[in-house]
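Researcher: We plan to redesign the surface later, but first we want a full-length starting point. Tokens attached.
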């Protein structure tokens, strides 16, 4: 059971690592269009991301599918920029055209990309582990806990801006999404495979 808690802690550290803040940026971009009134859909998206992130890890750990690390490291900031751009476009969509399904599909696909980005390091950590399922489950648990914390923080920030400072939601979503893009550009440039 000690190993299980080790992998929970590893999952927490993986997401909450401020020196590798791509995960935090992605979750921020994911949560920006939502408010506390829409907690269920944004938690659903975070859970879909966790599941597909861990699915990619599982595929890699069991040597079912291994991706080129350089390509994946470039695609991770691309997913952040695309999510932030989607927020901006989505804000301009008519209310009757907005649907969570597209969010779920994109989040699932982006979760796979992020999972493959961490797979080599995770495989190295697991090294000689015979049981690979429990470490994956522990890691997924740590990821989910930390992602929910980040989502709640973003929703709290949105609440402060929208309810207390009285910034209209569309303006908040667009400004916050632009900020995420600006913070992601250096990561994107650094990871560009030239």
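Model: Full-length starting sequence:
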């Amino acid at each position: 059971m000690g190993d299980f808690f080790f992998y929970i802690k590893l999952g927490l550290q993986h997401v909450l690592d401020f020196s590798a803040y791509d995960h935090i940026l992605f979750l921020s971009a994911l949560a920006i269009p939502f408010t506390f009134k829409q907690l269920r859909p944004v938690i659903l998206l975070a859970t879909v991301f966790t599941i597909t992130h861990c699915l990619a890890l599982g595929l890699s750990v069991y040597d079912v599918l291994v991706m080129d690390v350089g390509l994946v490291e470039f695609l991770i900031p691309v997913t952040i920029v695309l999510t932030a751009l989607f927020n901006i476009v989505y804000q301009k969509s008519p209310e009757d055209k907005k649907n969570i399904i597209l969010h779920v599909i994109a989040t699932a696909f982006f979760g796979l990309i992020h999972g493959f980005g961490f797979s080599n390091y995770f495989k190295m950590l697991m090294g000689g582990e015979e049981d690979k399922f429990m470490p994956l489950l522990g890691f997924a648990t740590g990821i989910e806990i930390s992602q929910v914390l980040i989502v709640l923080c973003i929703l709290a920030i949105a609440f402060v801006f929208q309810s207390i400072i009285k910034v209209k939601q569309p303006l908040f979503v667009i400004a916050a999404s632009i900020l995420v893009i600006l913070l992601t550009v250096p990561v994107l440039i650094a990871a560009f495979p030239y």
